[in-house]
TrEMBL record, chain A:
It comes from Pseudaminobacter salicylatoxidans. The keyword Kinase does not apply. This is Putative tricarboxylic transport membrane protein. It comes from the Bacteria. The chain crosses the membrane at residues 20-40, 52-72, 92-119, 131-149.
UniProtKB/TrEMBL annotation, chain B:
The lineage of its organism: Bacteria, Pseudomonadati, Pseudomonadota, Alphaproteobacteria, Hyphomicrobiales. This is Putative tricarboxylic transport membrane protein. Residues 20-438 form the DUF112 domain. It comes from the Bacteria. Pfam families: TctA. Keywords: Membrane, Transmembrane, Transmembrane helix.
Amino acid sequence: MSDTRPSEADRPGQERRPDMGALAIAAGLAIISVVIAWNTATMGGVASYSRVGPTAFPYAIAAVLFVLAIWTAVEAWRGDFPEREADNIPPILWIVGGLAAQMLLLKVAGFSIATGLLFALTARGFGRGPLWKTVPIGIVISLAIWFIFSRGLQLSLPAGPLENLL
Amino acid sequence: MDTFLLLGQGFLVAFELQNLLYALIGVTLGTAVGVLPGIGPALTVALLLPVTYKLDPAGSLIMFAGIYYGGMYGGSTTSILLNTPGESASIVTALEGNKMARKGRGGPALATSAIGSFVAGLIATMGLALIAPTIVRFALSFGPAEYFALMVLAFMTVSAAFGDSTLRGLTALFIGLTLGLVGIDLQTGQARLAFGIPDLLDGIEVTTLAVAMFAVGETLSVAASKRSADEKIEPVKGSVWMSREDWSRSWKPWLRGTAIGFPIGAMPAGGAEIGTFLSYSVEKQLARKPEEFGNGAIEGVAGPEAANNASAAGTLVPLLTLGLPTTATAAIMLAGFQQFGLQPGPLLFANNPQLVWGLIASLLVANLMLLVLNLPLIGLWVRLLSIPKPWLYAGILVFATLGTVGANPSSFELGMLLAFGLLGYLLRRFGYPIAPVVVGLILGPLAEQQLRRALAISQGDPTVLVHSPIAIVLLLLAAAAVIVPLILRARGKGKVLAQLAADED
């Protein structure tokens, strides 16, 4: 919690506009609430032997989430959410791209190549490159990690062409 | 005294060569990871949980205890040498500690923090050993209704009582509870919110969620932040040893900090690091040279650091005796128990005393190891601090995904890591707390189980929940935990509460 963030009290009388991002969160919460209720209502099947079966808790959570969605919408409308910095999208895309690449390549190319890409793309997100240097560095580091953890600690990390060489 | 006998047996377990080795590895890894900027105790234990997968339960929990204490030590080193406010529970330490470091007194600051942590850890762990059997006896009389009330209380204090918004705290909690619904219902075998995806039937892994929220979410928000924080590492100049004056100014704050921190951590309501703030203001009141506060007063490091460690040991009281996690770190530790099918609580003390007391004894051993390890190796930890950001965060993500893949080598698990990471980033951006999500995920299913058990016994009569005085008191406290802060905030006194919130990442 930083104390530098301006709170509402510091700026009395200033007009606050509806916070679109927070309104989107309110909508998201409402959707989740409806999905839970719908999923619970249609899950059918099992006859419950006790009066409080597997549906009671989900319904309760769905109901509270709906109330929270309305509450969030009200606060968003009044602009009560703390202020945010402007989004800085490119680094996020690099890192999300790295995670996605690792996820997709994990089974095909093995742990080291997939994780090496994640390493390089994350470093790129923080402004460190070039990729032709960082990708090999990442792969070597990941291969070392693979060796320690899968041989030493017997974690089952997917092996690919590189791992099979060892 | 039965307790000492049990603790003695615990030491026999802890002193086995193999367990000593596990403890040593645990504290070393814990300190090394905890020292890295941006990694607090919660993420440290989440990242290192996979390392313990293949060990036997006792060894694994002992290593885990070492990681926990090591992570706490590492965090305070970061706060003193690198002023990163909002980094972790040791935010108060940064106030005076970083000032001391800037004046070239980083050595004594680290020393008082390390020795204070040791003293606090020692006393608080002994406190844990002494108090636990009593609570266990008491808790054995609890029925499902009392447990449910206790969990409701924990939910409310973790989410609504502190922080800057009741709404956002509760929302975070209910997101966690929703995630807790996913998977096969424990009692009927009914699949809920699984949408026909087999990977979801087992539910959502606490470690996946915690690592995603803390590691991926944190990395994304640091990367997206345009403000490049002015982070300057203060070199440790001169001797790390404390002068006679430092000692005489430190020992009372250590004891006072412990006395403040332990009870707060031990209460089922001890979700926030109130202890460090209380200790800081107490030391400021009592100091012989109050003018030094704000310019590097050693009391301001010694007290809060002791309080911090004492309350960390304190949170183990509800965790071990009641199975109730009150912080994100405790929630992940609970997950650590669950991977061996162990459920902390009074029955664990009864059925598995060797394990529990071995764990408690290992905490004492780990504490001593940390003291020995920390002061001589400080130069090494400082070097870890200076890893440039791109490599640091790239490394954090590599280890975060390593843990996830190691636990479950599937692309789906990594997909969840990514999705929850984005969720964590969004929550951070909009000022939502993270800990309630993690606590909600792990405690939600347990609370539901107790609720349904209570209602099954009463054949559906909901008044069973308020039949015992204990349950009534707990539920009233839970209601107060929501309502009182709402009133305080409406009256414009919310700032104090916001400051009391622990930003546990």
